[in-house]
Amino acid sequence: MAVDVPLRRLFEYRVPDAFPLPESGSRVQVPFGRRTLTGLVWSHPAADTDAPARLRDVIAVLDSAPLFSRDDLALIQFAADYYHHPQGEVVAAALAPGMRAGGDARAAQPYWSLTDAGREVDRDALARRAKKQVALIDALAERGALDAAALNAALKDWRRVAGTLVERGWINVEERDTDGHWPEPFDATPGPELGDAQREALANITAQRGFGVTLIDGVTGSGKTEVYLHAIRECLARGQQALVLVPEIGLTPQLARRFERRLGRHVALLHSELSDGERTRNWLAARSGAADVVLGTRSAVFAPLMRPGLIIVDEEHDASLKQHEGFRYHARDLAVWRARRLDVPAVLGSATPSLESLDNARAGRYHRAVMADRAGGAQAPAIRVVDLNRHVVDDGLSHPARTAVAAHLDAGQQVLVYINRRGFAPTLICTGCGKMAECNYCDARVTLHLGRNIMQCHHCGAVQAVPKVCDACGEPYRALGEGTERVEQALATAFPGVGIARIDSDTTQAKGSRDALLESARRGDARLLVGTQMLAKGHHLPDLTLVVIVNADQGFFASDFRAAERLAQSVLQVAGRAGRAEVPGEVLIQSHFPQHPLLTTLVNAGYGAFADAALEERSQAGWPPYSHLAVVHAAAREPATAQAFLERLKPAAQAPGVTVLGPAPANMQRRAGLHRFQLLLQSPERGPLHGLLHRLAPVLEAAKTPKGLRWSIDVDPQAEL
Ligand code: ADP
Ligand code: ZN
Q1: Is the dihedral of CA 547, 550, 553, 558 positive or negative?
Q2: Are strands 628-636 and 710-715 parallel, antiparallel or unpaired?
Q3: Per residue in 39-71, pLDDT tens?
Q4: Is 376 in the pocket of ligand 1 (CB under 6 A)?
Q5: How remote is the CA of residue 468 from the centroid of ligand 2, in Å?
Q6: I want to staple 63 with a disulfide (CB 3.0 to 4.6 A). Which of 26, 405, 448, 631 is the partner?
Q7: CATH number, domain at 74?
Q8: What does pTM read for this prediction?
Q9: 350 lines ligand 1 (CB under 6 A)
Q10: CATH code for the domain of 544
Q11: Residue 426 per-residue DSSP state
């Protein structure tokens, strides 16, 4: 039995004769110490083994049929082994949240449908007064009974309208058992004819008999999504399900609508912003096979599938596909493992593939399909570097950038100003002694948020009052550097009357606010967009013709060996937002280091050339993908506690072929009041590294940990070392 506790082992229980024997992959309730927990049946002992005398009894059997198939369980087992993480916690990550605590696998849900009176409404007459009512009636007439998730995907503000129509007796709401109720297929909208490069990429995927990985290395706008759609359609035609993973929740509604329109199927969404009920229902539809297409973020890689036929990972380079806390798995890597186990094709797509995937393609393990041009005749944007040493800069914007913004606005187009820092300014600096405002709990500065009039730490979230004067010398502070708020303010002053939307995690806290802002960007109400990373990924804004990258310099001199790769990816991803339709785009990158080889290679020769150079550097330095890494972290209130814990562990962390470095302080030693240290394990081969971790995990678990000390294992770490 796998039980949700932080121990790397399974537990045995007895099933009382009164209960049906639950199959592997079913949930049960079990006593654990003095608590009652949900467990997942893993296996049954062979019939002739004697049960140990003092087994505790299962309290209840929750599922009459297994939730996970053998293949699904194999994935969970592999993930637990590979990431050296407790099985029970991996099971918890694989379950829909509503089911972890033992929720019913057949929860009822409200469904809306037309009544007879509703079907007879004169929609043309109504359309003049109440467009939204007609839209809702149309949707229900076309697709039958729909639940909240389906309506959310199809219409905005439908709930209020639905209330009105229920009062009029035109529609009905009723609770239905969710199992087996999934919207019927509907008519699909045809798409564009594929171009040559797209056809070739598709042929590659469909030529796979069984497992094979296709890496679609296609510039933004080259039509990767179109290729996915065709591949999915062929998968559906074979009677199989497709699983699609994306790194960001923000991308799912837009992508889901496009998939639904084009495939004529209701898509099962899986991400953390859905209610538990919706998520459980979609999860169950994936498992039962009712949903043909499953689209989700990271954890959807574990979604149980009845008849899997294709796995796609979009934006495969994106660091959000790796979980950075707790169970630190990489969804892309597990997706490829799962496809191999299921013997089905896998597709990884990106405009800026990870160096790991490019290396896999070079070695012949993946097939690389290059799509170098934008689809449908759109042109690649022209990229220009603005030397910040040679121009006056005001609130982060250089003179050439301001001129370009004015020109594009005058031409009636849309402009995106990208700055990867929220808040007004990254910190305050004392005009007298140069002291900067710092967090009380982290080795970090605190950011000035003028809107909320606070100083906030972006690492631990702690908030302070905005200081009037320096506590060391009494001189006044001034804001140092710029964030999204400051740039927004500067643009509002420079371009009065032009609609501005700022899109960062401060403006998108409230449910639905991100979609609303993106919608206003898409409609063109906001012609000036200021945003962080959140705006850089995958959004299609047809009128956007200018992208200004306020500062590209943060990645040049970082100690982390992945910093250059991340910088190149984020620059090209945000640049890719420009000029996706008829009008060609322009990109301005502001930098203090315009001659930096990384920047010149990227701008003049493109991502491929950059990646070749970066792989060469990695190879010489022996970093991944030319070696494999794992980190043992320890954190405690006192630095000596964490450091000594790892020192004591170190003698056990020795193995031939594995280099052990540390213990050393983490990149930011103190965070949220904890001092963090790490032991870095490096090996040219995976085998010895995992052999060592396999021996080390039980040692760690058994170690007497000082009070308040926390440790963890991170395999293939992506965070800064
Ligand atoms: P990507 O996923 O690579 O960014 P998309 O698949 O979203 O690219 O395509 C970008 C745009 O080009 C979309 O508006 C899409 O409809 C259009 N498009 C894609 N393929 C074609 C094609 N073969 N012919 C014409 N337009 C296309
Ligand atoms: Zn902090």
Answers
A1: negative
A2: antiparallel
A3: 999 988 876 666 666 889 999 998 888 999 999
A4: yes
A5: 20
A6: 26
A7: 3.40.1440.60
A8: 0.88
A9: no
A10: 3.40.50.300
A11: S
Nearest to 276 by CA among 91, 105, 158: 105
Residue 331 in tokens: 């969804």
Asked whether 210 and 217 are in contact (CB, 8 A), the reply is no
Q: Rounded to an integer, what distance in angstroms lies between the CA atom of residue 78 and that of residue 90?
A: 10
For residue 189 and ligand 1, the question of a CB distance below 6 A is answered with no
In a domain, 49, yes or no: yes
Q: Which two tokens stand for residue 595?
A: 């001659």
Cα–Cα distance for residue pair 101/23, rounded to 1 Å: 19
Residue 127: give the domain boundaries: 108-177
Which residue in this structure is represented by tokens 């000596």?
640
Confirm or reject: Cβ of 375 under 6 Å from ligand 1: yes
Tell the residue nearest (CA) to atom 9 of ligand 1. Answer: 223
pLDDT digits (tens, 9 = 90+) for 514-556: 878 888 888 888 999 999 887 777 577 888 899 999 988 877 7
> Does the Cβ of 542 fall within 6 Å of ligand 1?
no
- Angstrom distance (rounded) from CA 131 to CA 463: 46
**Amino acid at position 12, single letter:** E
Q: Which residue has the tokens 């072929």?
A: 657
- Ligand 2 center to 524 CA (angstroms): 37
197 lines ligand 1 (CB under 6 A): no
- Give the H or E element holding residue 204: helix 196-206
* Tokens representing residue 623 in the block: 């970093």
Q: Which atom of ligand 1 is nearest to the CA of 193?
A: 23
